[in-house]
Amino acid sequence: MSNLATVFPPPPFYYELFTEANWERAQNLNGQAPDEELEYLVPPPPPETPTYRGFGSIWNTEEKLVPLKEAGVEQLYEDLGPNNENLVPELKKLLKSVLVNFVTLVGIMSINPEQFPAKVDDLRVLFINIHHLLNLYRPHQSRESLVLLMTEQIAARRQEIVEMKASNQEIEQRIKTLVEHLPNLTQMEPTDKPESEWGQFDLEVDKLP
Amino acid sequence: MSDRLSQLQTCFDQLVTQFFSSLNYINQHHEFVPADGQQPVSDTAHQALPKQQFTKDLEELAKDMAMKAKQIEVLIDSLPGIDTSEKLQMESLASLEEELLQVHQERQEAIDERRRLLGLCDDLILRITKDKVELELDENA
In this complex, which of A102, A143, A150 lies closest to B19 when CB atoms are compared? Predict the structure, then answer.
């Protein structure tokens, strides 16, 4: 039971410091040194070392895709080139290699099963290469998705504008007809309406096509 | 639907799983071949299948694998924007951003126009109501 009780630790003591008032004060510090109460509300500066510890592992301060060589895996593909023109042929080559290596693995298993670890390792390296190659392409795909999203948004907006303009024109037309059918409307003097507004209204009506 | 890259990565993972399950299947269901002049070995934990069935299953597994490989090839070919460079992408993003702002502006103009028309309608309604009330007053007088 005592083990279970320690599974979820109580919240840290400083959670009580996160009040609306303190939060507001922390926002208005403007670089002044925080007092004891606000110490926990000001985020610490980012680490200056290239790596830091967190949740029991070591992390890189700078978020980046570690090149295969640094990760200790052999790079089997050619570099992508400036326009990623090598991506498709290299991926296909890797896929073919995977298939061939699997067939070889099955052969080894049926003739001399003890020798399988080397082949399995070949397959492992191949798959790491494939996944790495695909991850390299991610920023490119993100940009491409953004282009697509914006194009769609522009098209939707344009459609909306066209529809709004059409209905605006129709309304304008109806108002015009109405004014024409009620000629006494414009003859009568407005009583408690300011002159300027009616004058503007007449002008607007005149401007109608 | 997830993006193409994630689909591809999932497909590759599925391919590995197929590799594993195929090997596992062969290991579980192969027949025992007797060595010269000896009785074939037997194992109660092993479910050997008749040769015909076994070969048929192997063919099916191989076919599935080939299908998966083809699917992967199709996905590779349909990776988005494969023939554009980063510079081109950034350029089109910039021009799209400008266009988006402009469209936004046009849309705002259309909305303003609608508001103006609504105001006109309000004026008209007020005006007509007033005329009607005055007419009734005249009649009553």
Answer: A102
Q: Is the pTM of this model over 0.90?
A: no
ipTM above 0.90, yes or no: no
The one-letter code for the residue type at A40 is Y
Note whether B71 and B118 are same-domain residues: no
DSSP letter at A54? E
In terms of domains, do B78 and B96 share one?
no
For chain B positions 104-123, those within 8 Å of chain A (CB to CB) are 104, 106-107, 110-111, 113-114, 116-117, 120-121, 123
Q: Are residues B123 and B74 in the same domain?
A: no
Q: Which residue has the tokens 């190659």?
A: A133
Domain range holding B50?
Answer: 2-84
- Identify residue A128 by its one-letter amino acid code: I
| B28 and B48 both lie in a single domain | yes
What domain count does chain B have?
2
Residue B73 corresponds to which amino acid? E
Q: Which two tokens stand for residue A58?
A: 């070591």
**pLDDT tens digits for A106-125?**
999 889 889 899 999 999 99
